[in-house]
What does this fold into?
Amino acid sequence: MSAPTTNIPVAIPAAGSSGTPAAQQPRTIAGSLSGGVPGARGIAGRLLHGTPGRMRLFGLLGVIAAVLLGAVSANALLASQAAVERAANNTAQVVRAQSIHVDLLRDDAVATNAFLVGGLESPDSRARYEGAMARVASGIAKAAAAQPADGTALGALAERVQVYAALVEQARSNNRLGLPVGAQYLTQASAGLRADAIPIVEQVVKANEQRSQKEFDRSNSSLQLLVGVVSLIGLVAIAVWLARRTHRYLNASLTGAIALLLVALFVTATTITGIGTATRDVSRGDFQSAVTLADVTTAANDARANESLTLIKRGSGQANETSWKTDKSAVDTDLARLASSARLTSLWGAYVDAHVKVRELDNGGRWDEAVKLSTSGTSAGAAKTFDDFDVAVTQARDDAAKATVTSLNGLGGSAPLIAVVVALAALAASWLITRGIGQRIEEYR
Amino acid sequence: MSALSTALRRRISTLVAVVGLGALAGCSGVTYAETPLPTTAAPRPSSSAPPVAAPTCTNATQSYDPLPSLPSRDQITDPTMRDSIIKRGYLVVGVSADTYLFGARNAFTGGIEGFDIDMSRAVAKAIFGDPNKVQLRVITAGDRIPLLKDREVDMVARNMSMTCGRWNDIAFSAEYYRSGQKVLISKSLLADDKNAGSWGLADLKGKRVCAPAGTTSLTKLQQVQGPVVVTAATHTGCLVLLQQGKADAITGDDTVLAGLAAQDPNTVITSAKAITVEPYGLGLNKADTYLARYVNRVIADLEADGQWKAIYNRWLAGPLGPAPAPPTPVYGR
It folds into this structure.
């Protein structure tokens, strides 16, 4: 339900009246009441006088209680459904931002690795770089359209990504000419990507994770229903008062109204609790796996880029190897947290083995062989084992993300219908209350 | 009275309708706070440390006497050479990968090559009989002395000037190349002033001049009044800054500048005379006097049998003309 939009401009008072303000009589509320509605107080006094008057007053209160219960129930139902919908949207945005994060690091891993090979980069690696870059560009546009609150951050990100892409192209064209300044541009591109662009993506992911979490919490809005419970107690009190006053114990209409409202409140409460529980299951299940798998993918791609950078720096890449180790333990921890990650763990293990061999070769002074192994597409090569893992983990993450959004979208679909039924029930109950009390007023006369 | 109760009923119905509509509109949209941008630390001002008066002496190029002849591997009893280099099986040399012609990565083969690399390979060949028994470790200019002190590398072959100050921290081989500090400018300066082509450092008033951190070129630049000092990690880093419009000129040894100018036709080395004499030596750990004497023997042999000239011609004959006579070594330290 969207907020009502009013585009009616605020009326600006005519400037002419400011000329003679003192000449006019000041208009007060008291003045307008006393003069404007003659005898209003008299009518109210007559209506509320004596026992029939009190019955009318309680009748009015009863109707208000019934309407309040209906309104609160319908509102809570719609709020739950809206919260689930927003949670689904925020989750989709988290997935979008994480995809951008992964593709940026994938770009860097491909670019640095292509550089390592020397000579002209292969058309395949060029195609992979361009594919990831295109996904980043369209991903930023889609994410900005999906969540306006991310607009500024994504704008800044787009700017940084452009700088990165420009530096990589400059590195590439210098490299084609065989000029060493190309390597310097690549180093600057990688450093800038990690220092400027990645922190923004991480911020966007974090903000949307928090928004999702907030909506997951909001989806269980059963606290509002306490108002409904109080209304119901009020109605019962009125029924008891009426029975004592008139010595007629059963008022069919009033009792019917109370029963109807009780059922409405119960249905509302169970529906909302159901939505809340199901949402929590999704947030702890598929959503958590999707987030964890995305973390695995980013850490793994960062590790791969660091492997290339370590080799490019030829013995001065200790900092990059340290980063590789940090990435590795992040992947290990996350994989251990996931259920049914046996296949991913074994694929990751194959890459780690290849990396360890690459480091052994490089540390043993056999840099050329280390580079060959790092870029090798054979079954034990680092390039092949890493690609196998990357493909598998990306697939697993996409599946988990899709499952999250699908199951969230499936939740709370019936809530609007139930809200309408509950609202109608409350209206029917109001009518019954009016009828029941009206009956007693007639009898009293 | 029944009229009144009808009126009441009607009023109640209106009220119900109003409240009901309000309830439906109640679930209004949620607006989120804007995603904050990560806070970035303010950029540090470029290091403009006050120039430190360089220690002076008269024997900066004086190294240790060369060994009378090259011993075979089994004859070497010096603990550093025997227990670390020979036992390891290869020599670890700190080199540059982006000093075009002296030590640079060949973008087509991925290998590092240049004048300094050939010098390193010559030392490896003398020790192991194989020029490939060398691990080239790419380091920055600022890394040279710390890595030698920590014995992370056995030797540094990275266009390193022999100075009195550096002799306090490390040892040098005999001089194997003589260079001098010059200035490279962006050709855009020529558009503003036709005479820019002959400018020295002192003429670059208010211009941003780049030099790599930890180099003698930077020390010299800081001693000159007028230019705005900009630093980068390497000379190539300076070239990137110049190409990005963040520097107007670069100062460094003429050999290094020749390598930079060869990479960017929009730059030119000014015709001003070299402001310093830069004798290049191979850097060694201060305690490794035996290794220094061994390396000096290798260099003396290279110069004697014409290999030094061959190496020079392979890399530098193009931009600098055919090889001059090798620098005269000074021994006796």
